[in-house]
Sequence to fold (517 residues):
Amino acid sequence: MRSKGIYSGLILGVSGALILALLGLIVIEIAHESRQSLDQLGVVPEFSFIDQNGNIFGKEQMMGHLNIVNFFFTSCKGPCPYMNGKVAELYQKYSTTNRVQFVSVSVDPETDSLQVLRNYAARFGVTDERWRFLRGPVEDVQNLTEHGFHLAGELPNLHSTKLILVDQNGTIRGYYDSFDDASLDVLTVHTRALLRGMM
Amino acid sequence: MQEEKLSPKVENFRKWALAATVLTYFLIFVGGLVRVSGAGLGCPDWPKCFGSWIPPFSRQQVPPEFEAGTFNVTLAWIEYINRLIGVIVGVLIAGTALIAIKNFRSEKRILIPSIIAALLVAFQGWYGSVVVGSKLMPHTVSVHLVLALTIVSLLIYVTQTVFYQSTGYNKIDNNTNSFLRKSVLLLWIFAIIQIILGTQVRSEIELILLEFPLLFEHEVLTVIGPVNYMHSIWGIFITLVSFFVAIGLIKRKDRTSYFARIMGTIAVLLLVIQVILGSALEIFGIPAILQVFHLWIASLFIGSLLVLYTDLAYAKGA
Fold:
């Protein structure tokens, strides 16, 4: 009588645990999937600019990395310092991997010489190649913002303050508001999910 | 063991108390699941979700005051279902307390813990907003867990007490010595320390991930402080202690109830599973599903000790 009770208790316990495990696995999996399923918002066109250290940097150098792209100019007094301050925070947070790089494109190449870009990079604590500041012909930059990243606004003053996540295949996966911390948290979640997908 | 005929009042209360206990355990499981699936902030506001009582189904339905980009329909609904189960548990516990007030006013052992559980569950509901508001800061998540353990402990005590008082089960069985009860109590204190250490391990992992969110879990384990070792060593120590307690229960067969011996064995089994799960968490880089079970079995272990302690203590007054 007693051993019968033990067995039925055991069967009940084990089957209950299995049902919970199954439920748990399903919930974890669909949550994981929901984070992975990022939209594909277009492909970055070919371009080739020069970074602050004089190296060629273009679409080719973006491939194989996750890229966080933004547009700025060094003499911008308004939103740029705040936006790049946020990028600098991410640059520190993401310092545990070389697979994520930051790409900041100057929309005022007339003023932003390589020396100016180097000084600007130093101001934000850039010490390695994970954050590139790019300079290219103004028409090409205009073309890249409008047709490549679909960002409106007259350059240089009305450039976008969005951060753009580009995956290892050069596909745009998301736009994030650099003035909204919640949006930046989502950027981190998406970057983490894509990084996991790369492994 | 002869079942006595129960009055409908007692039977009704037994059902409520048992349902509240079982469902609270389920909620602890679901709560753990919400955390590991990253759905804790699925709803950025509280008690509503994206400003409405029924979460949006698409990005287009997200009101303008919320950033639509932060909306993830799956995560919002996981968090929302967690809240709904929370409401059901709240209603069950409140119902249990109301019946206790109505029908068991003179039974302080039933009345007082029922009322405290109801007050705590109301507080817990409100505290849910603090957890969300703090963006899931690790210490708030720990307080949320400790509150849940306290509530479920009170419910277990109420359920068990009403079962014993109504069936006379304790009168037939044992009259054990106080040494065993003290051992169980000591084990319970050890277990609470272990749970605190466990929440510290989790807090450290989460704080490291807040600072460096792109680290992989197995990388986090390599930089985590000594608390992880303390948690492991203490876990093995508790398992050994529980083993001796179980042997003590079995040896004193003449004084302990069959139920107490089964409970002692279950407690040891739960701890053995915990040691295996803990090791697997280390080896496999903290897989999410194992985290949920590791925490949940800890709460079951606490419950099993409490049941054991009550079973041993109850016989004393018989």
Summary: Chain B has ten helices and no strands.
